[in-house]
């Protein structure tokens, strides 16, 4: 692909791709040329990727039911996959996942707040497929999530932050409104599962797995399907 990097594949059906830099001994190797090559490589890999989670599971040779662990917007992906394929998962762990309706609620809470432009733009881009890297139609996807039927008895645990992290300049009152909307979104996830519960993680911001890795591992072990 390039003299700057190498792409190799392994695993079942060559489903795992490894991207390796081929010039680590060059001073200041991480320059504009290399960054451009990396973007091209990962864009090409993204085009080759399966478009649904079951295809990924099959490509990796995994046997459902699985425990799905999803962070941020990935929570929407995981729950959507479970709606489309009820036999896929035997449990769901959400890590500070934006709940149904949250992006629009965030935009409503930030409307007219000039000092919150950065945070407002982040959620606005997510709702428009032409404005985010994943080309996600967030407006449609999150609207559909609000109408999801119950997932039944599948165990679900939603871990959420205890440390609020907002864009610099967002006024305190608006931050409080955002946290209220976030809480409502978490409860929206729990409403989908008969065996759902919410846990606020001490000393953790949005990246819960980085801030409290041992707790995340503990919760994964608790939720793993029997057998």
> Which fold name corresponds to the CATH topology of the largest domain?
Rossmann fold
Largest sheet: 4 strands, parallel
First and last CA, distance: 42 Å
Radius of gyration: 20 Å
What would CATH call the homologous superfamily of the largest domain? Alpha/Beta hydrolase fold, catalytic domain
Q: Could you estimate the helical fraction of the residues in percent?
A: 40-55%
Shape: globular
Q: Helix/strand-derived class?
A: alpha/beta
Number of strands: 6
Number of domains: 2
Number of helices, counting only DSSP H or I runs of 4 residues or more:
9
Label the CATH architecture of the largest domain: 3-Layer(aba) Sandwich
Q: What strand line-up does the widest sheet have?
A: 3-4-5-6
Structural commentary:
There is one protein chain. With 227 residues, the protein is an alpha/beta fold. It has 2 domains: 5-48; 53-223, Alpha/Beta hydrolase fold, catalytic domain (Rossmann fold, 3-Layer(aba) Sandwich). β1 and β2 form a beta hairpin. The chain has 9 helices and 6 strands, in the order ββααβαβαααβαβαα.
Question: Which descriptors would you attach to this protein?
Answer:
about 230 residues; Rossmann fold; 2 domains; two-stranded antiparallel sheet; 9 helices
Please specify the SSE layout and strand pairing.
Blueprint (H helix, E strand, L loop, with lengths): L4 E6 L5 E6 L10 H17 L4 H7 L6 E6 L2 H11 L4 E7 L6 H9 L6 H11 L10 H8 L6 E10 L10 H19 L2 E9 L6 H4 L1 H11 L4
Parallel strand pairs: 3-4, 4-5, 5-6
Antiparallel strand pairs: 1-2
């Amino acid at each position: 692909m390039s003299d700057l990097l190498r792409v190799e594949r392994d695993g079942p059906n060559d489903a795992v791709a490894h991207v390796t830099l081929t010039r680590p001994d060059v001073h200041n190797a991480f320059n504009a040329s290399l960054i451009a090559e990396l973007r091209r490589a990962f864009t090409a890999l993204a085009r080759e990727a399966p478009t649904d989670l079951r295809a990924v599971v099959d490509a990796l040779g995994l046997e459902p039911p699985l425990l799905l662990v999803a962070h941020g917007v990935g929570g929407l992906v995981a729950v959507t996959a479970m709606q489309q394929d009820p036999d896929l998962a035997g449990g769901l762990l959400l890590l500070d996942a934006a709940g149904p309706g949250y992006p629009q609620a965030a935009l409503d809470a930030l409307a007219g707040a000039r000092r919150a432009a950065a945070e407002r733009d982040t959620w606005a881009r997510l709702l428009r497929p032409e404005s985010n890297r994943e080309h996600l139609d967030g407006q449609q996807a999150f609207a559909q999530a609000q109408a999801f039927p119950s997932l039944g008895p599948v165990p679900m645990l939603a871990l959420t932050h205890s440390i609020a992290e907002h864009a610099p300049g967002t006024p305190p009152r608006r931050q409080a409104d955002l946290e209220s909307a976030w809480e409502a979104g978490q409860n929206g996830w729990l409403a989908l599962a008969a065996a759902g519960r919410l846990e606020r993680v001490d000393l953790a911001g949005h990246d819960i797995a980085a801030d409290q890795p041992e707790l995340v591992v503990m919760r994964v072990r608790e939720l793993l399907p029997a057998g």
